[in-house]
Amino acid sequence: MLDDQEWLEFAGPLGNSIGLIQKVRAEQGLSLPDALKVGELEALNRYRELTGYAETNVNALWHHRVSLFGPPCSSCGKPLRTPQAKHCAECGAARRT
Asked: Sign of dihedral through CA atoms 25, 31, 35, 36?
């Protein structure tokens, strides 16, 4: 999971992947599917540099931000699914305020 500072550092390259894909296609003459793979690999490599975890699904990276989740459940310790969650999705415990 990325904190907000790490996310800001990471989100730029991830969100700018269209520009990268266009550049790679123009410079290397790659097909769109091949250029997409290059863009995905760059984002996955950057994530691994930041976290040490080798994620394999580039779409999952959009959800690896701590601020999207709530605090840890007071019962089981799993993060609540959203900052506004009233109950833990894992164990069903009510959120303590």
From this structure: positive
